[in-house]
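Subject: Protein record for review, amino acid sequence with backbone structure tokens
Why sent: The fold of this protein is of interest and is recorded here as tokens.
Enclosed: The protein record, placed directly beneath this head.
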Amino acid sequence: MSDTTNNNTKPSTLQSYVDSATGAVQNAIGNLTGNTGDQAKGQTRQEKADAEYNASQAAAKLPGGTISSTGAFAKDDPNRTEGSWNQTVGAAKETLGGLVGNESLKQSGREQNLEGQQQEAKGQIRDYSHGLGDRAQGTVGSAVAGLTGDKEGQIHYEQLHDKGKTQQRGAEVDIQKQAEAKEANY
């Protein structure tokens, strides 16, 4: 489903922006005219828009992939999984090397951990960029298919958009978690 379509079954980022702006205008008009009904309706519309926006941004990380609020699943780039594994093994080697006084094992673990971080970052960037590309292609393709009356094509492109959005959100979730972890360590 494209972000410009709101069929009440899938959260839409763009629709949440439109609803929020409409609610703000309605609230402001109510304030100017003293009409509490318009104020309340505007406030309610803004709150609904906030909830829709939050739902459109939701993504849950699962082992090996991400599932979004739209129900789409996107598998992680293999570099993300392998990089995470290399970080874990590297950290274990580094710790064990430190415990037993083996500098070679400690250094090997440190290097493997760093290689894993780079590998995971490469996968995140790949997932993020592929997600953006699929979202754009899905949005344009869905619009064109809708204009030409190609219902099957429209469904295909909406699914491509949803998958891309999920893939992008999954990378964003991991990047944000890593940034917060680094911040906490400083």
Observations:
- The chain has a mean pLDDT of 83.
